[in-house]
Amino acid sequence: MRVLMVVRPAVGGMKEHVLTLARGMVARGHSVDIAAPGASDIAEAARLAGITVHEIHLVGPQHPVADGTAIGELTRVIHAGDFDIVHAHGSKAGLVGRLAVRRVGGVPFVVTAHNHVLRRTDTSPTARWRYRVVERTLSGLVDRYIAVSDSIARELTEAFGLSADKVVTIHNGIDTAPFLVPQSRSLARESLGVTSDAPVVGLAARFSTQKGLGYLVAATPELVKRMPGIRVVIGGSGPLEVPLREQAARLGVSESILWPGQIADMPRFLAALDVYVSPSVTEGFSLALIEAGAAGVPVVATRVGGVPEVILDGDTGLLVVPGDPHALAAAVLAFIGDPKTASRLSAAARLRAVSAFSPKRMLDDTLAVYADVLAGAAL
């Protein structure tokens, strides 16, 4: 089977998802190409993996001129490639991809929805209306929608009004093996400049509104009050770094928060933590929570989007309401104050990470969707 995957300049979970699928399909004897912006992280990683990349000018935000260019470029790629199926990732690639496929004709088209569109904090009412109109009008050009969580699947069927027969949930899968390897806690903490006896909590994330990092900063004074030696580590980068640092300074907790920047070695980073904290206000699905679970780190997360499908409250972690720094702090302190419960839940999370979110399961389910779509196209 010859597959073309279409993706915008993806980072984080979407990038890993696409690469995991592509590598897995190639290992099973299929041919996979990727259409993406040439200078993007996803394109560079794909080339390193030996995957053919077709450069198209696909930007993230809606842009009539750039989108028109991308549709034309993608049309030429599809026409010349003799692909059996085109699989777009994300709403923008899904829009551009279906219009290009329509021009060519006869090629089955699948879209994976990785994130909530209507629940995003940066989506205006006008944009929400536009998304609904476009999706409802052009849904007939999509053979199957794959949602990475049941929460996103419900948005597609309930908010967008898509037929449930066209939507299937396939949870993300990751290679958990690197997170199962024992790491040196002392070396991990040394790399962050943290003492061996200090309670350490934190996460690694994009510094975006959706990640709710300001609520973790707001919870820090309560954490410091209860445990003066605690350190909160916020790894990653993004446009909100300056406002977050300013917030920490206003609250008088600058010395208690560490900002190590981008995390290159996640298994080692996780080994330094006593609790992994995810304060997101929206979340389609979280690979980071699977990684933390696989590493055996107790997880505190907000009950949003697809998170409850990853973390089972009271069984594999603790879930709190979003936007509540006090609830966030209370859950973190509950774990630190009760090591036995923390150990029991983190052990269950590790088992769930390995069994429920494997790349093999994700690949098997995706190929099953392809087979179903191709069988329908052959009728």
Summary, kept brief:
By secondary structure, this protein is of the alpha/beta class. 49% of the residues lie in helices and 16% in strands. The protein is built from 16 helices and 13 strands.
Structural summary, described in words:
The protein folds into two domains: 193 residues, Glycogen Phosphorylase B (Rossmann fold); 180 residues, Glycogen Phosphorylase B (Rossmann fold), CATH 3.40.50.2000. It contains 16 helices and 13 strands. It has a seven-stranded parallel sheet, with helices on both faces. α3 packs across α4. It is globular and about 65 Å long.
Keywords:
379 residues; alpha/beta; Rossmann fold; 2 domains; six-stranded parallel beta sheet; 13 strands; globular
Question: What's the CATH architecture name of the largest domain?
Answer: 3-Layer(aba) Sandwich
Estimated structural class? alpha/beta
What is the total tally of β strands? 13
Instruction: Please report which band the strand proportion falls in: under 5%, 5-15%, 15-25%, 25-35%, 35-45% or over 45%.
Output: 15-25%
- CATH fold description of the largest domain: Rossmann fold
Radius of gyration: 21 Å
Principal-axis shape equals: globular
Provide the number of structural domains. Answer: 2
Helix % is: 40-55%
CATH first level of the largest domain: which class? Alpha Beta
Order of helices and strands: EHEHEHEHEHEHEHHEHEHEHEHEHEHHH
| CATH superfamily caption of the largest domain | Glycogen Phosphorylase B
Question: Uncertain spans, ≥5 residues at pLDDT below 50?
Answer: none
Main sheet properties: 7 strands, parallel
